[in-house]
Amino acid sequence: MAAAEPKPPAGVAAARRLARGCWSAFWDYETPKVIVVKNRRLGVVYRSVQLLILLYFVWYVFIVQKSYQDSETGPESSVITKVKGITLSEHKVWDVEEYVKPPEGGSVFSIITRIEVTPFQSLGTCAEVRPKYEGQQRHLQLGDEDFVAGQLDMLGNGLRTGRCVPYYHGSSKTCEVTGWCPVEDGASVSQFLGKMAPNFTILVKNSIHYPKFQFSKGNIEHRKDGYLKHCTFHEVSDLYCPIFKLGYIVEQAGENFTELAHTGGVIGVIINWDCDLDLSASKCNPKYSFRRLDPKHVPASSGYNFRFAKYYKINGSTTRTLIKAYGIRIDIIVHGQAGKFSLIPTIINLATALTSIGVGSFLCDWILLTFMNKNKVYSHKKFDK
Amino acid sequence: MAAAEPKPPAGVAAARRLARGCWSAFWDYETPKVIVVKNRRLGVVYRSVQLLILLYFVWYVFIVQKSYQDSETGPESSVITKVKGITLSEHKVWDVEEYVKPPEGGSVFSIITRIEVTPFQSLGTCAEVRPKYEGQQRHLQLGDEDFVAGQLDMLGNGLRTGRCVPYYHGSSKTCEVTGWCPVEDGASVSQFLGKMAPNFTILVKNSIHYPKFQFSKGNIEHRKDGYLKHCTFHEVSDLYCPIFKLGYIVEQAGENFTELAHTGGVIGVIINWDCDLDLSASKCNPKYSFRRLDPKHVPASSGYNFRFAKYYKINGSTTRTLIKAYGIRIDIIVHGQAGKFSLIPTIINLATALTSIGVGSFLCDWILLTFMNKNKVYSHKKFDK
Amino acid sequence: MAAAEPKPPAGVAAARRLARGCWSAFWDYETPKVIVVKNRRLGVVYRSVQLLILLYFVWYVFIVQKSYQDSETGPESSVITKVKGITLSEHKVWDVEEYVKPPEGGSVFSIITRIEVTPFQSLGTCAEVRPKYEGQQRHLQLGDEDFVAGQLDMLGNGLRTGRCVPYYHGSSKTCEVTGWCPVEDGASVSQFLGKMAPNFTILVKNSIHYPKFQFSKGNIEHRKDGYLKHCTFHEVSDLYCPIFKLGYIVEQAGENFTELAHTGGVIGVIINWDCDLDLSASKCNPKYSFRRLDPKHVPASSGYNFRFAKYYKINGSTTRTLIKAYGIRIDIIVHGQAGKFSLIPTIINLATALTSIGVGSFLCDWILLTFMNKNKVYSHKKFDK
């Protein structure tokens, strides 16, 4: 602080003297005057509070939470998958090409476990299904308004012709429609492919990259021998053999395979790369977890299914086989967080720690004033010097 | 601070005395000596500054920004979609299997609204299209260099045979090429499927998981009755009925449906899960927004389209129907941020707040020295005790 | 601090006097008493330490690390891709529809560069391949156990009939199986499509959105002329022309094209949007990088391939052409970080800076006590007032 002159005389000389004074004062060193309170009880309280704060920072902030690290979440990730295995329905053998959709081996794919096939559909006219609402079957008495020609029911299968025709099974009648005929609900046949499905193997090649730290790693062993031909994943002994049996995945997700194979469902394979990059790269390992992702208990629209078709030309006219496929969709989800020592968070946390230890002094002042016999010890000492 | 001994005598006794002194001094309590300036004006300024800083921290940092929370962005997310509805072109009825690509019900899918069909393509020779550059039609006088056999134009349709043949329409001639014939531009027929498309319904099942807080939630109502059969999404009354009409999505994104259906485009359905996990789970709700994602005003390559084909064998030779599909691609994008009370950010922010209130004292000193009648009040009081 | 009354008399008057005293004391201003140490050497050390800390904060924390900004990582992103070009195998011309899978133009797609075709497969019986283990061919002497009828080898091609039949080539015999026949390994023919593939062009339309800052940008030039028809990407001169040659991408990723086209592989095109939103939007530019993503040196399961089929009906029975496709999968990965000035990090960092400069004083005290001739200068001055 500039030493204030009591009576500044006017003129250049005074200004110069002031400047010189300021300059000189700038190089002075100031330190607060302190009072030393020679009270052992107070000292113990003071140091204990400081110790607690110090412990909190050293143990929790620095060791547990690793607050001295800069961190990055959401690594760049690439996933390649490959399913192997064959299965049987009642009539035929199914190979990977048929039951895995889409075939490209990306991070999301479905393994079909049950199908409802409607073969030989072609564009023509046929009986519409009766209006069906899952959960509450409405048995409608067909009235005139149901036969209006040219009407299009958004949840139906085609354009109404205006006629009334017998239904596929039973003696009732329904509206006739123009569209892909026969309609799915009237003519489909169910086939179960899931018998051998628990033994399908799924290879999940995943490599991640943390751009901030220029760190890359993959989840696969680099071994010359035929290790990857025979191994299956095990959390401890075969962590770097990312070959999973479908049954294992479903079991780890806590689901019943047969039930899941009938209704379909989505299972997430979550790969977690939590890495402390201050340690060696070999300490940065993937952690796999498995969880069912679709809502299981929603009565309407539970499970997972989709429709696809194969188109044929027979004698010049187009025919298709419509397939409603129930399956187990596997979503490979990769996330993670990497941390590495960095100056800024370290300094911010250190400064916070030091400030907080200073808070200890503030707390002590408050304790002193409130609980201690302050008149005897404190105020006596405070003004005695 | 260790009380410094004036003249430390040599020898063990002195060292011991010093150590004892240090130890004793360690348990002393120190507090800065303060000067009390009994000036009401200065006190008001001082307390006002402190109050302002306190208000800023309590209101903005802690209440508005929730800086006492630890946060996590980018939840693990799983999306299952299902489109329902049928539509008409001039000649036929189209169902979901035909107009949704890919069919698996993932987070990105296209609803085809217009197609250009090139039927009965087979491998053979035919006339190449004339070199066409959108925006600047080049009317080339065909020269000899255009007929070089074996040449391959990367943007053309095949390998040049070296002959010159009449074009599909009109009297002009073009190069002949070997490839899938006839070529698309010469023989394709346009069909519009978008008439009923605004009434298609899209069910979006989304479940998220914040791994740091072990919190999961879905966007769908768990109700036993047939609620999900009849409802459509409404931001207030039906937030947990994620069934959207395609027309609603396009309208919310601020686009004209007919125009979009002709050129194709990409619409993002953004689901935002911003959750304060200190509150109950029922306060953590999805927020939907809709935005066009592809660049609308880029003259070249605007809109969205892709090509796929259906392959047939007719009398042993392969024929295909090439389809250039314009459509509305829906990208379901899920993001979010969750926050929950945590000690570290709370303490860092508290320490910062306390430090900043201390800064109030510093500011006051500065005001005092600069503006107040310091000689009379301050320096008088400062050194009087 | 409340001025403590030495002997508080009982009664209301005393309480009132105490309250009045407290109220009065609340508006007092307190400032620590300081000692001015007029030592030039110490002052220089003190100011230098402060200067160093100040420089660190101004330069590193505020200028380099931009700690005054609030940041957001992981923008919402949408990617549309379009591949153009035709190529030749020995027998035929291939267009985009045939070699790009899936066709929808999303952020992950494969360009097929080599195929192994198994034409005319139908459900029937044929010879199984001999058990093959890549890397270590096992020449098994077929025993009785290999012919058990009804056995299903998960890595084989069908259900064993129990018979022993001659293999496709050579004189050896293998088990007979029921399945899609003939099996792939016995009857497939290889075709190489990659000759012209380096010249394929890939258009990558990407638009991003930072929801926290309401900032959107695309990677494509908005120009009216035919610029996008002719340009190819160049990091400096054509940054906003996102049209890449496949050969350029592979070269930038440091791979050999021919080798990659034979074995298949995954190349990541990483688009990085690091934006300082305090500057103008034109300073926020995409940065492209290219990297091979699949593990290259894993002996088993290296490269990238997948299987798909085309189904035909010939004379009422189903036939398929199975295609094992090796290709270059392109993963467009978008990430980025945006920062914008925000009060909270600024204040936290400022408070940390001020605290740290205060630490300078603490350091000086320590230097003073340890190294300086403290008895002469310091303790003399400390207690002199």
From TrEMBL, chains A, B, C:
Covalent S-S links between cysteines: 126-181, 231-241, 275-284
Reaction equation(s) it catalyzes: K(+)(in) = K(+)(out); Na(+)(in) = Na(+)(out); Ca(2+)(in) = Ca(2+)(out)
| InterPro entries membership | P2X2_purnocptor (IPR003045), P2X_extracellular_dom_sf (IPR027309), P2X_purnocptor (IPR001429), P2X_receptor (IPR059116), P2X_RECEPTOR_CS (IPR053792)
List glycan-bearing residues. 199
GO CC annotation terms, alphabetical: plasma membrane; postsynapse; receptor complex
Q: Which GO terms describe its biological process?
A: calcium ion transmembrane transport; response to ATP
Transmembrane annotation, as ranges: 44-62, 350-372
Which GO molecular function, any one, fits this protein according to its record?
Answer: extracellularly ATP-gated monoatomic cation channel activity
| Keyword set, alphabetical order | ATP-binding, Cell membrane, Disulfide bond, Glycoprotein, Ion channel, Ion transport, Ligand-gated ion channel, Membrane, Nucleotide-binding, Receptor, Transmembrane, Transmembrane helix, Transport
**Binding, ATP:** 82-84, 201, 305-307, 324
Question: Where, per UniProt, does this protein localize?
Answer: Cell membrane; Membrane
Q: How does it sit in the membrane?
A: Multi-pass membrane protein
One Pfam family this chain carries? P2X_receptor
Q: Which domain of life is it from?
A: Eukaryota
The record's family statement is:
Belongs to the P2X receptor family.
* Alphabetical list of PANTHER family matching this protein: P2X PURINOCEPTOR (PTHR10125), P2X PURINOCEPTOR 2 (PTHR10125:SF4)
Q: What does this protein do?
A: Receptor for ATP that acts as a ligand-gated ion channel.
Q: What is this protein called?
A: P2X purinoceptor
